[in-house]
Design a protein that fits this description.
homodimer, 227 residues, mainly alpha, Arc Repressor Mutant, subunit A, Four Helix Bundle (Hemerythrin (Met), subunit A), three-stranded antiparallel beta sheet, 3 strands, globular, DNA-binding
DNA sequence: CCGACAGAAATTGTCGACAAATATAAATTA
DNA sequence: TAATTTATATTTGTCGACAATTTCTGTCGG
């Protein structure tokens, strides 16, 4: 299993473990989007008390996977088109800035590391052309590396700790298997070049275009489906 | 008291109330930055059980006012220069985008409402020139209005629900009483004009400069203090 | 005197039960 | 029958106690 959250170490407490299980279950739609969450039922299913379940629910709420209302209960967030587009707008802002900061703050080792990863992605892409899964994972790894390279804890926590769980959820539930793999690969190359040149302004611009292109790609797909 | 969080309705459960009290206490430094939080002690102080205290702590963690480590405990986040600058970088990205979206999505009524507010701020500034407090509150109100005007729940929640508590905390603890009031007022006017013209690109650019200027102002102050 | 180790104290994590609030079902009335 | 009210049942919020882990304290050996 690839790392879902590169900032946190492995879970120790049982609430952490249940949180991770539920996170996967929600992201992959096993617990359906929009459904109500029954505390007694889930506590029984995971063999834990309601207290620790509520602890897990709090963490799920932190990454916006569920929503709670006082004296009413929790619901899994429902995946809407508007929500997806809003998410991409936010990503564009945050990851654009993270990319600018990465160009400024990444160490030389981090940069060569990132280049190596890109090279690897190019090879696997040649081999497994068509099956987009590896590119899918690779895309997330690429973005993670840049975000971490910003060396800005605020950005890192917001994007990796919160937004990206939602991103993965939408990708799963809408079956978005990165259809623009080769194009994305070229865009990734350009971005890394800009970071390599320490050109923060260009790096931010390219990253924003990269994400905006992804968003527009989705919008087109939606428009197509509506026919 | 002015509204700390315009998105949430008034607190109903006791955990909510304790959360709000602790939030104020932390923002204003009554519970010192960087200090460890003793669950038994605070539970006794607020006359509640540890369970509801922990519920309140979870909400404090959600807005990044405290940090928790498993089996160790919670600490109030400590205000460092680096943290402050990182926060402003993040604000620049998020509020810049929010401003762009506001230019696109704000209703005409919202715009005239915002204009009226600006006019009011100009008057109070004339009257109370020098005492920056009203401008301080006004500044936050201005930013809130634009963020809400983005009509993007993701942005609204991230900025208003999380970042701004930290912003207020830093303002309190570092005693930043908005020393650039008149200049900020002019910048606000320009931004509103751009929104009025539905020029999202310019609006984002101006907002980013506005926040970047504020950040640089802080950097200069710090450099001055270091002498 | 310093560091490693063992035991004691305190703190956090987890549990089951009760109180308060909400949602559901039944009953009454127009 | 439809709407409103009442009663029931379920769910959430809160509490105090126990278990597991960490931190502190004091002792011993080098």
């Amino acid at each position: 299993m690839h790392l879902a959250n590169p900032t946190k170490q492995t879970a120790v407490t049982t609430a952490d473990k249940v949180f991770e299980q539920m996170q996967h279950a929600i992201v992959e739609g096993e617990i359906p989007s929009g459904s109500k969450i029954s505390e007694p039922e889930l506590a029984k299913r995971y063999q834990i008390s309601r207290s620790t379940l509520r602890e897990a629910l709090n963490r799920l709420e932190k990454c916006h996977l569920i929503e709670r209302k006082a004296n009413v209960g929790s619901r899994v967030v429902d995946c809407t088109i508007e929500g997806l587009l809003e998410l991409y707008i936010t990503r564009e802002a945050l990851e654009g800035m993270a990319c600018r900061q990465a160009a400024k703050n990444m160490s030389d080792e981090e940069i060569v590391d990132m280049k190596a990863m890109l090279k690897l992605h190019g090879q696997t892409q040649e081999l497994k052309d068509g099956t987009a899964y590896y590119q899918e994972e690779g895309d997330l790894d690429f973005h993670y590396k840049i975000i971490l390279g910003s060396h800005n804890r605020q950005l890192i926590d917001l994007i990796c700790g919160q937004l990206y769980h939602l991103v993965r959820m939408y990708r799963c539930q809408f079956g978005m298997n990165s259809p623009r793999a080769s194009r994305a690969f070229n865009e990734h190359s350009q971005i890394i070049q800009a970071i390599c040149d320490r050109d923060g302004e260009l790096a931010e611009m390219l990253m924003r275009r990269h994400i905006a292109a992804s968003r527009k790609n989705i919008e087109n797909k939606i428009a197509q489906q509506a026919l």
